[in-house]
Automatic annotation (TrEMBL):
It comes from Roseovarius tolerans. Residues 55-117 form the DUF302 domain. The keyword Signal applies. Keywords: Signal. InterPro entries: DUF302, TT1751-like_sf. It comes from the Bacteria. This is Camphor resistance protein CrcB.
Length: 150
């Protein structure tokens, strides 16, 4: 019985990590990382949002003589939308501006990944039916779809 309880405790402890995978939306891209990131950045600026930074993780790894598959992060946002979340809960600023990761997996496939806004703000004082959450989710879906070549 004691072994069963220990096994159950270990299994239950691992569930949040498994559940968190549902919070990440992944979109398969038809291009390589650089092309996909260029398309994403163009889509973001074309939609009137601000690009704050483009981080090349692979270049960072190379600067310390380490290898990393092509991986880039775009940090962007629209203050008209993000400010609403921060008005409801200032801690939302920990998650904003929005971020999309473009990376190459072990099989050579390029992916875009982002955290579902509804899940991202789940522990905050933000209503699940806030209109800006729908706007953020919709925008992320459209932007990543364009960047993926869909």
């Amino acid at each position: 019985m004691k072994r069963f309880l220990v096994a159950a405790a270990i299994t239950l402890a691992g569930l949040p990590a498994l559940a968190s995978n549902d919070d990440i939306v992944k979109v398969k891209s038809s291009g390589d990382v650089a092309t996909t990131m260029d398309r994403l950045e163009a889509a973001v600026t074309g939609a009137g949002a601000n690009v704050f930074a483009r981080v090349d993780h692979a270049a960072g790894a190379a600067s310390v003589d380490m290898d990393l598959a092509p991986t880039q992060l775009l940090i962007f946002g629209n203050p008209k939308i993000g400010t609403q979340a921060m008005q409801d809960d200032p801690v939302a600023g920990l998650f904003l501006p929005m971020k999309v990761l473009v990376y190459q997996d072990g099989a050579g496939q390029t992916w875009l990944a982002y955290e579902d806004p509804k899940e991202m703000f789940d522990d905050l004082s933000i209503s699940d039916d806030a209109e800006y959450l729908k706007m953020m989710s919709g925008a992320l879906g459209k932007l990543t779809g364009k960047a993926a070549g869909q």
